[in-house]
Write a structure and sequence with these properties.
Blueprint lengths: L12 H12 L4 E3 L5 E2 L2 E2 L2 E3 L4 H13 L4 E4 L16 E4 L6 E2 L7 E5 L4 H9 L3 E2 L11 H7 L6 H4 L6 E7 L5 E3 L7 H5 L8 E8 L1 E2 L3 E9 L2 H13 L6 E6 L24 H4 L5 E9 L1 H15 L4 E3 L16 E6 L5 H12 L4 E5 L4 E6 L5 H16 L4 E6 L2 H6 L9 H11 L15
Parallel strand pairs: 4-6, 5-6
Antiparallel strand pairs: 1-4, 2-3, 7-8, 8-12, 9-13, 10-11, 10-12, 14-16, 14-17, 15-16, 15-19, 18-20, 18-21, 19-20
Helix pairs in contact: 1-2, 7-10, 10-11
């Protein structure tokens, strides 16, 4: 493999730049700048091919010169996961965009990998349809969402985006354009979550659905993970067909030393403030119901009977809906565990950290994100991860570091136990034997 540290300085670098410009057209090929990096690893060139065949030529050029390639969509999750060992060519998928849907045909749409989800929804919405994918990353492209296996609140009803795949078109490491799967390999599923390490997604054929006529959010304050556990079980048993069951457990506000009157300006209009209630500020459990107006009204009635008198009905989502609890610079964790054990995972995180941490996500499927302060020392993060993972392993769960400051990323095991690592290793060896596609981005350093 080429020496990335001097790939733009060595003889032949200018020739590669010219060849990329010839493939992509001059405005769409350039030497990379400081902002063109992947989890802290700076690229050497940026290529923005105008279509699948141009993208294939970029990959063939990379193969001929033994260069690595890392795909990039909108870059909303470019710092997630492990840093690649080397980034020679950053292949920007922004021009691999478009939505093809034929009204009256099967309810499917072929969507270019570089198409922003917002554009997908706007296009489908003109015919009363939607893609039931609501990934939290603002501006994310479909390819980026699939590459990170990023799901939002609607995963409860429709599954994650990878579950909605019908077919794919992708480029292998040698630049061959492939539709569907290779014999013996479910490549469509393998590409999901692979962060560009197994192939470059060109387009995906996805299931689309009619847009619901009515959407209602029913919320209820919650104070403990065990209370969340009991309520989620009750909601799922109530047969109200929720589209999403989301949880927000913010970092609690300390109780004031003295009770402040509810009329005081500092708490006016905030009936849930601890100064008024006398207990720490609550989190929220919110259930989304979708469907026909009359049907939704009937189900809302049944749901509020389950959630009790503290439940509130809204026609708009809460401000935190579909957003991550972490900010840039935080250490972001993703916890996945069977829903009956989610409370144990949250308690384990609290115990290991010594204080409650912000937790938010899909309580209805046992998949949430948590935020650790970015200033927390790497050894402390490693200790917390070890404690949480020891609790999850017996419950068939896992805890993954989604994003982290560079010192933490270098010091901790981002993935933990990965049950399908041997299968992933075989797939990497088969699809990218020379390790040219995002080397090191996958679990196990693949």
């Amino acid at each position: 493999m080429a020496d990335a540290s001097c790939s733009t300085d060595r003889p032949g670098a200018l020739d590669i730049t010219r060849k990329l410009a010839k493939i992509c057209d001059p405005p769409f090929a350039r030497l990379a700048g400081p902002a063109d990096e992947v989890a802290g690893r700076t690229a050497r060139w940026v290529a923005v091919p105008g279509g699948p065949h141009a993208a294939a030529e970029v990959l063939r050029l990379a193969a001929a010169h033994d260069l690595t390639v890392v795909p990039r969509g909108a870059g909303t999750k470019i710092d997630w996961g492990a840093a690649p060992a080397q980034v020679d060519i950053m292949l920007d998928t922004g021009r691999l965009a478009g939505v093809r849907h034929e009204p009256g045909a099967a309810v499917l749409a072929e969507i270019g990998a570089g198409t922003p989800l917002r554009a997908v929804q706007a296009t489908l919405g003109r015919t009363g349809l939607r893609l039931p994918v609501d990934a939290p990353s603002p501006g994310a492209t479909l390819g980026g969402v699939l590459a990170a296996d990023e799901a939002g609140p609607l995963r409860l009803r429709h599954g994650g985006p990878c579950a909605q795949l019908v077919g794919v078109r992708y480029l292998d490491a040698d630049g061959e354009l492939i539709s569907g799967d290779l014999p013996g390999l479910d490549v469509a599923r393998l590409l999901c979550g692979s962060q560009g390490g197994l192939g470059v997604l060109v387009s995906a054929t996805m299931r689309v659905h009619a847009r619901p006529a009515s959407r209602v959010w029913v919320s209820r304050p919650v104070w403990t993970p065990l209370e969340v556990h009991d309520l989620v079980r009750a909601v799922l048993a109530a047969e109200v067909q929720p589209a999403a069951v989301e949880l927000d457990l913010p970092v609690p506000v300390p109780l004031p030393r003295r009770r402040i009157p509810a009329s005081h300006p500092s708490v006016s209009g905030r009936p849930d403030h601890p100064a008024v209630t006398g207990r720490p500020a609550a989190g929220n459990l919110v259930v989304l119901l979708e469907g026909g107006p009359a049907d939704v009204v009937e189900r809302v009635g049944r749901l509020t009977a389950v959630l009790g008198a503290e439940s509130v009905v809204n026609h708009r989502p809460p401000e935190w809906w579909g957003r991550y609890p972490f900010a840039p610079g935080d250490t972001a964790l993703r916890i996945e565990v069977p829903v009956d054990h989610l409370h144990a995972a949250v308690y384990a995180l609290r115990d290991a950290a010594g204080t409650p941490m912000a937790v938010r996500g899909s309580a209805g499927v046992g998949a949430v994100h948590a935020a650790l302060p970015g200033v927390m020392p790497p050894e402390r993060v490693a200790s917390i991860l070890g404690a949480v993972r020891s609790v999850l392993v017996a419950r068939q769960g896992r805890c993954v570091v989604v994003a982290a400051p560079a010192p933490v990323r270098r010091a901790v095991d981002l993935w933990g136990e990965w049950p399908t690592l041997s299968r992933l290793r075989s797939a990497k060896a088969h699809l990218d034997p020379h390790r040219r596609l995002a080397p090191g981005r996958l679990p196990g350093g693949l």
